[in-house]
């Protein structure tokens, strides 16, 4: 029951914002990304995708994206999220995301719902949440899995044009990992104009049943460009 509270809050505050002011688009952005990866399971693989976000009335936001990849077999990943920025002094958001992962050659599909709370500060932030994941293998529905989500980041360097960010988490927009399986990411963002930002980064995935495992599972490079209003 507790996991439904963020969802209820999202719908309630969204309705309040729209009824109070009418619908206005106050921010929007979209990006294209390419992600080559090397890991112990598939050796070399790649992903290419697109993602976008729209904010209404400076309060309600929706996001979505599609990532297509090749890991020896073709896979597709879909992400959709809706949330609200709370009208309080702290920069806090409540959101609910839906993630769909499909591996056609393995005859498997994964459906995940994740309510989350996100808090941001000037030089960093964190997110905590809960995941509910169902897997369908060869038309057989497996038992639902539950897990806790955690993300933390710190901005190592910030200026008007450049941001360098270090992030540790056990999930990202298109995939939810287990509680003790996390990755580390370093991302560079360079704003080349008012409407265009170029990003690049490196990710390292960990293996093992606990987060302190030092055995590297794999790594990936990320590059892309983001267009904004």
Report on the structure:
The chain is mainly beta and 229 residues long. It has a single domain (2-228), classed as Porin (Beta Barrel), CATH 2.40.160. The chain is 7% helix and 67% strand. It has one helix and 15 strands. It has a twelve-stranded antiparallel β-barrel. The chain has a two-stranded antiparallel sheet with strand order 11-12. Strand 4 and strand 5 (91-103) form a beta hairpin.
Features:
229 residues; Porin; 12-stranded antiparallel barrel
**Radius of gyration from the CA trace?**
18 Å
Shape summary = globular
Uncertain stretches of 5 or more adjacent residues: 208-214
According to CATH, the homologous superfamily is monomeric porin ompg
Number of beta strands: 15
Order of helices and strands: HEEEEEEEEEEEEEEE
Please bin the fraction of helical residues.
Answer: under 10%
Task: Tell me the β content.
Answer: over 45%
* Most strands sheet: 12 strands, antiparallel, barrel
Q: Which strand order does the major sheet show? A: 1-2-3-4-5-6-7-9-10-13-14-15
Kindly name the structural category.
Answer: mainly beta
Name of the CATH class: Mainly Beta
- Alpha-carbon distance between the two ends: 38 Å
Topology summary:
Blueprint: H1 5-21, E1 25-39, E2 43-56, E3 60-70, E4 74-85, E5 91-103, E6 108-120, E7 124-137, E8 140-141, E9 145-158, E10 162-169, E11 171-172, E12 175-176, E13 183-191, E14 196-206, E15 216-228
Antiparallel strand pairs: 1-2, 1-15, 2-3, 3-4, 4-5, 5-6, 6-7, 7-8, 7-9, 9-10, 10-13, 11-12, 13-14, 14-15
């Amino acid at each position: 029951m507790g996991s439904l509270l963020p969802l209820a809050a999202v719908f309630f505050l969204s309705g309040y914002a729209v009824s109070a002011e009418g619908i206005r688009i106050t921010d929007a952005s979209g990006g294209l990304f390419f992600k080559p990866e090397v890991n112990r399971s598939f050796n070399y693989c790649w992903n290419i995708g697109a993602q976008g976000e729209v904010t209404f009335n400076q309060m309600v936001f929706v996001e979505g994206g599609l990532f297509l990849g090749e890991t020896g077999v073709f896979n597709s990943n879909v992400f959709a999220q809706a949330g609200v920025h709370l009208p309080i002094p702290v920069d806090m958001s409540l959101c609910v995301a839906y993630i769909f992962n499909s591996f056609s050659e393995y005859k498997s599909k994964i459906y995940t719902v994740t309510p989350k709370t996100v808090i941001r500060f000037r030089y960093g932030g964190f997110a905590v949440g809960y995941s509910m994941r169902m897997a369908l293998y060869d038309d057989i529905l497996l038992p639902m899995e539950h897990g806790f989500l955690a993300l933390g980041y710190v901005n190592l360097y910030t200026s008007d044009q450049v941001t360098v960010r270090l992030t540790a988490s056990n999930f990202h927009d298109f995939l939810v990992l287990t509680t003790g399986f996390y990755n580390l990411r370093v991302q560079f963002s360079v704003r080349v104009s008012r409407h265009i930002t170029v990003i690049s980064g490196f990710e390292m995935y960990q293996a093992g049943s606990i987060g302190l495992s030092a055995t590297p599972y794999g790594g990936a490079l990320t590059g892309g460009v983001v267009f904004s209003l």
